[in-house]
Every structure is written in C-alpha cells, then in structure tokens.
Automatic annotation (TrEMBL):
GO terms for cellular component: membrane. Signal peptide: none annotated. This is CDP-glycerol glycerophosphotransferase. Keywords: Membrane, Transmembrane, Transmembrane helix. It comes from Aeromicrobium fastidiosum. The chain crosses the membrane at residues 30-50, 130-150.
Length: 530
C-alpha cells in the first residue's frame, strides 16, 4: 500500500501542474465541477428516495451551496499591482503591498459548510436545519467571492492601462536576488527596437528590492502567486513576446501562455552549466551571442533544433573599447579582478574569491594596479563577504604604503560608480573565473586569466572552451608568477583570443551587435497589431 510520502508527492505534483499548465488547470476545473454536480444530484436523489421530491428551498439550497463551495474551494491569490503604468487607479498603484488578507479560515469553513448543506438536504432535514449550514456557506464563501470580484476588477484595471500602453514585449522575470543586474542588462537593448515593453515579476518578496535597485523606464507589474490567472487577463493584444533572463523553474508559469512567443536571453554567455539547461529546449527562440553557445548545447547533450537559434552577439559589449596597444607597452598595467559568486551548489561553484587575497598579492608583486569588482551577490553572503573584505584589505594596505607605487580601486568606486564596462575600459588585463564577464571581455581583445578551482590547466581548458584563450591559474597558485608574467608581457595567447572572440561574440564589432539586435526585434515587434 502506498505510504504517506507517496500521497504527498502526488499532491505536490498536482499543485505544480495546476500552477504551470493551462490545459491541466482546465481539466482540473472540469473535474471539480463534474464531481460537485454529481454530489448535488446525489443529494437530491437521496432526498427523493427518503422523503419524496425535495422542496424548492432544498433545491435552491444545494445549488447555492455547491456553486459557492466550488468558487471558494481554493484560497484566492491577491490581485497584481503595477508601478509606473499610466492609467492605473490608486488602489493598484504605489508601494509593493506587504500584507494580504488571509482568507484561509473562510475557505476552510466553506469547505465544511457546503457539504453539510448537501448532507442535510439528502437526509430530508427540516428547512430550519438546512438553513444553518446554508447561511454559513453563504457568509463564508460569499466573503471569498466578494474578494475574488475585487481582485478581478483590479486585474482588469491594470489590463486596460496596459492596453493603452501597447507593449510589444515583456521581460518575464521569476528569478531571485540577481534581478537588478539582469533587468538592467536587457531593458535598454529591448527598448532600442523602438517599441514599449513591460516588466512582469513573479516573486513578490523581491518586488521592493528590484524596484529600489533598478532604474527601469518600463512599467513594472507585480504578479500574484497565481500568475497564470493574472496573465490570462494581462496579456493584451499587442503583447506577443516574452523574454527570459533567469533559469527559474517558475518561468513555466509564463510559458503556459501559448499565444506568446517565448525567447531565452539569459544574463550573459559563459561555460557555466546554467547556460545549457535542458529546459531551454522548451523556449520558442534562443538568442545567443555566437556559435560557441550553440556548440555548447550540443556537446552537453541538450538537443535543440538549429532553427530555434538566432546569433545576434552581445548588445551590452558595444561600450567596451578595443585595445589600442600591446600590454607589453604599458608601463604599469591595470588588472581587473572580477571573481564570480559561489552559486547555490558546489558543482556550480567556480568562484576564486576564497583565494582572492593571494591572487591580488601576486598581481601586486608583478607590478600591476588592481580594480577589484566581486560579483554583487558576494557582498550579500556572510561567508563570502569575509573574503571580499580580506581581499580589499590587501589592496588598501598596499595603496596606503608610501614605499610602493600601488594605487588600487576598491569599494564603491568600481562597484557602484563605475559600470562593469567602465571597469573593463580602465583595465589592461582581466583575472576572473568561469563567468560571462570573460565572454564580454573578449570584445576588448585584451589578455585575461581564469582561475581553475578544481582542475589542472589542461583539464580546465578541455571543460570550458572560453579558457582556451586564457592564462590559467590553478587554485594553489603555484605557477601564478609565471602565468601572470606571460599575461602582462609576451602575451602568447593573443591569436587564440582573437579566434575565440568570433566564436563567442559572433564576430560583431563596435555597435554592430546592438544594431543587429535592435533591427531583428524591431522587424518582429512592428508586425504586431492591436
């Protein structure tokens, strides 16, 4: 006999499928109404057998109890709310709501009162007895129904405002703490296509964080926990394209909307496992920066039809300046040290931050100045923040010494005042990890080193193709002096870097990628009519 864990897994599977599949949801609704109708008929039939045909009061009672119980069967999600969307009434605009009414007790009460009404009618109980659970279900389920009407009205108000805004695309976000970087990375390229858009966010706990840490110009719509319910109303006639930046499983809530074209953008090209998830095959279109990304899927065993890919380069690298001289001609080179974060699991932990202090010491010893820009999430992680501070201490100490020429950049200047592209333009070389930072850096043509936290240099280059143009530092830094000297001097990897740049970034130069991206989507957005 199945144990409790089996039934719990089945329950969770049902809930998950109900959240991400319109077809499953419709089927579940048909089943619920079918069962409710059958119970209603059974109650009337039993009454007829016990005490003859039921009175009009009994018939009305079972009808009202059945309908209201089904309406209030699930705890209703709150209404969505909008920010920066003209035409939205005040009750659906403003700060991210912190609290929502808890209708759980009302839902549970109606689940009890509704069936009791049917039982009372089936047992041919007097009208006074039937009235007790009937009144209860009217009050309990009625409260839920009134709330659902209010939610529906607010959702429609936002939909009317969106229809007036006429967005052609939505950034469909369901990610976590990295949202500000992801959203800022892609909003401008999408708007450069010449049409308005909107940002949908799924996880309400990040609503305030995303709004406070981005300068979005597009309207921001915070969905409820029942995203499918909201999207069925909020997808206005002009809205035909959804773009995805994060690998969240909750993207499937958006992807349930089959009338929309779903496009995977990601948040940067890299050899990390997150760049080749099997579920990427479920998107209608994948925008990649170069053929290296397509090859990466194939070698990882993720089979996606070639016609789903479009190579448009990386619009974000248009601000990265190409090197104008050999690094050997730079008297005191500046090296950008930009370690990635550790990820959520050890298998995707490529961060060199734990040996960051030793890396910058080796760079100082080689006669370089350092710009230190760790991944933004590193400072939000208590354990990683320790290594950030340790690395900053080494650089601050060397800068403060009067007997050394070191002048390094740490803290707010490289991490907040300067953009990542500005940091790259100020640097002559890069030290980083398996990260999209490396792929973008290829645009500069400057030398770079990558840190292998687990493998030998040869194994590292075999596993991560972008490292084939890199100087590789192993975690023990045993050969750091020799590797850094080559990077800052003879630069023996230059030809390999040039070859990689074409494969990784598509061969676009200057503003060509940004222009290609804008032109490609302008043509598709322009074909959308209201």
């Amino acid at each position: 006999m199945p144990d409790d864990s089996y039934f719990e897994r089945q329950r969770q599977d049902f809930i998950h499928r109900h959240r991400i599949s319109l077809r499953f949801r419709r089927g579940a609704d048909v089943l619920v109404w079918g069962v409710a109708t059958a119970l209603l008929l059974v109650a009337i039939a039993v009454h007829a057998i016990v005490d003859g045909l039921p009175s009009w009061f009994d018939v009305v009672a079972v009808l009202v109890a059945t309908v209201l119980t089904v309406v209030a069967l699930r705890r209703p999600a709150p209404a969505p709310h909008a920010h920066g969307l003209p035409g939205v009434p005040g009750d659906a605009h403003g700060p991210c709501p912190a609290d929502h009414p808890d209708l759980g007790p009302w839902v549970i009460g109606s689940r009890v009162a509704g069936p009791l009404t049917l039982v009372a009618v089936a047992a041919a109980a007097p009208s006074g007895v039937v009235a007790v659970p009937l009144v209860a279900v009217v009050l309990l389920a009625g409260r839920v129904a009134v709330y659902l009407v209010a939610v529906r009205r607010r959702t429609r108000a936002i939909a009317r405002a969106l229809a007036a805004h006429q967005p052609r695309f939505a950034i469909a976000y369901a990610g976590y703490g990295g949202g500000p970087t992801h959203l800022t990375m892609w909003e401008d390229p999408l708007l450069s296509a010449g049409f308005p858009g909107v940002v949908f966010n799924y996880r309400e706990q990040y609503c305030e964080y995303l709004r406070e840490n981005t300068d979005l110009t597009s309207p921001f719509v915070q969905l409820s926990t029942d995203a499918i319910r909201d999207l069925k109303t909020l997808i206005v006639p002009t809205l035909k394209w959804f773009f995805y930046l994060h690998n969240a499983k909750s993207n499937y809530r958006y992807m349930a909307m089959k009338q929309v074209t779903h496009v995977w953008l990601g948040h940067g090209d890299s050899d990390k496992p997150a760049s080749v998830f099997g579920r990427h095959a479920d998107y209608d279109l994948l925008v990649v920066s170069g053929t290296a990304a397509i090859d990466r899927y194939e070698t990882s065993g993720v089979h996606i039809p070639r016609e789903k890919f479009v190579v448009l380069g990386r619009p974000q690298v248009q601000g990265i300046e190409a090197a104008t001289r050999s690094i050997a001609d730079v008297e005191r080179p500046v090296v950008l040290y930009a370690p990635t974060w550790q990820g959520k699991r050890m298998r995707v932990n490529f961060s060199s931050l734990r040996v960051g202090a030793e890396i910058v010491e080796a760079l100082i010893e080689a006669g370089a100045d350092v710009i230190f820009r760790p991944h933004p999430l590193s400072k939000r992680h208590p354990r990683l923040e320790h290594f950030v501070r340790r690395t900053e201490f080494v650089l601050a100490h060397d800068t403060a010494r009067t007997d050394t020429p070191g002048h390094h950049h740490i803290g707010d200047l490289p991490n907040q005042t300067w953009s990542l592209n500005e940091c790259m333009n100020r640097a002559d070389a890069l030290v980083s990890d398996v990260s999209s930072v490396v792929s973008d850096w290829l645009q500069s043509g400057k030398p770079y080193a990558m840190v292998s936290t687990k493998w030998s240099a040869d194994e590292f280059r075999e596993r991560f193709p972008v490292a084939r143009g890199a100087y590789v530092l192993t975690r023990d830094l045993a050969d750091a002096d020799e590797v850094i000297a080559d990077m800052l001097g003879p630069d023996s990897m230059k030809q390999r870097r040039d070859e990689l740049r074409v494969r990784v970034l598509g061969g676009f130069v200057g503003h060509e990628s940004a222009e290609a991206f804008a032109a490609y989507f302008h043509e598709r957005f322009a074909g959308v009519t209201s």
